[in-house]
Amino acid sequence: MAKFTALRPILWTENIEETIEFYTQILGFTLMGRNDDWEWASIQKDDVQIMLSQNEYEKLNGIGFTGSFYFNVDNVDELWEDLKTKVKVCYEIETFEWEMREFGVYDNNGYILQFGQPVDNIGNTE
Fold first, then answer.
1. For labelling, which of 18, 50, 71, 98 has a CA lying 20 to 30 Å from the CA of 26?
2. Strand partners, 11
3. pLDDT: which is higher, 85 or 121
4. What single string gives the DSSP state of each residue in 48-113?
5. What SS3 state is found at 35?
6. CA of residue 25 relative to chain centroid, distance
7. In the predicted model, what is the mean pLDDT of residues 70-86?
8. pLDDT tens track for 34-73
9. Which of 29-38, 62-71, 98-107 has the lowest mean pLDDT?
10. C-alpha separations of 100 from 45, 68, 75, 113 in Å
11. Which domains are delineated in the chain?
12. By mean pLDDT, which of 23-27, 63-67, 117-121 is the weakest?
C-alpha cells in the first residue's frame, strides 16, 4: 500500500486577499506561491502547509467543511497570549482531561483553528 507523506488541506475562501493577510499577518505564515489565474495560493509556517483557493471548483462539491483544523504547537500559552485579542475566540485556553492544553479561534472565513500542546511538553520547548 502507498505511504502517505503529508496532508496539505485546500481551504476555500470568498476573498483570497483577506485570507492570505489573516494567515500571514496574524498567524505568521509565509506566502510560498500564488497564481491569480487559478485563484490559488500556498502558505507555510514551519512544517505546516496550507493551500488557499477562491476557485469555484473547490466550492462546488456541495458538502462544505464540517470539522476544524488542529495545530500541534510547542508553546501554546505564548501563542494564546499573542492571538487572543487579534482574532475571534471559539474557546479560551484550558487544560483538558485528555492531557492537552489548547484553545480555539476562528479564521477570517469562519474555519475553526485549534492549537494544542501535550501537558507533559509544557515547559519543554527544545
1. 98
2. 52
3. 85
4. EEEEEE--HHHHTTS----SEEEEE-S-HHHHHHHHTTTSEEEEEEEE-TTSEEEEEEE-TTS-EE
5. strand
6. 13
7. 97
8. 999 999 999 999 999 999 999 877 666 666 778 999 999 9
9. 62-71
10. 22, 16, 12, 15
11. 8-55 (3.10.180.10), 67-126 (3.10.180.10)
12. 63-67
Task: Please report where in the chains the cell 501535550 appears, as a residue.
Answer: 118
29: nearest Cα among 40, 45, 13, 42? 45
Q: In what order do the strands lie in the sheet with 100-106?
A: 68-72, 112-118, 100-106, 88-95
> In terms of Cα–Cα distance, which of 123, 25, 38, 31 is closest to 77?
123
Strand order from edge to edge, sheet including 48-53? 10-12, 48-53, 40-45, 30-35
3 state SS for 99-117: CEEEEEEECCCCCEEEEEE
What global pTM score does this model have?
0.89
